[in-house]
Write a structure and sequence with these properties.
By secondary structure, this protein is of the alpha+beta class. The chain contains five helices and five strands. The protein has helices at about 5-10, 20, 65-75, 80-85, 95-105; strands at about 25-35, 40-45, 50-55, 60-65, 90-95.
Length: about 110
């Protein structure tokens, strides 16, 4: 079932398949604007994903977008590359990690 709130979509990130994320290590800041927005930190390490509210002091990569676009992305209604090209998604930091995220989230 598709997530209906930003919080549901974020919580699903902690349920990623450990086999898919075992080689991915990093700290991802989701900086979401608008209704339902805020800042959340997803830490991927050793096949585990943990989510915490707030911003880390030095994220590996920051993904900035509106909360509604993030929700559309998590439902598969918005293509991550298309969102980036249209300026709906801004990526700061490790672009390689961002590309790996596209593969596991899509």
């Amino acid at each position: 079932m598709a997530p209906t709130t930003v919080q549901e979509a974020l919580n699903r990130l902690t349920e990623l398949d450990p086999a898919k994320i075992k080689e991915i290590n990093g700290v991802i800041l989701f900086d979401l604007t608008g209704e339902g927005g805020g800042q959340w930190t997803l830490t991927l390490a050793e096949g585990k994903a943990t989510l915490e509210p707030g911003s880390p002091s030095s994220p590996t990569v920051t993904l900035s977008m509106s909360a509604q676009d993030f929700l559309a992305l998590s439902r598969g209604e918005l293509n991550p590359v298309g969102a980036f090209m249209q300026g709906k998604l801004k990526v700061t930091g490790d672009m390689g990690l961002a590309m790996k995220l596209q593969n596991i989230l899509g």
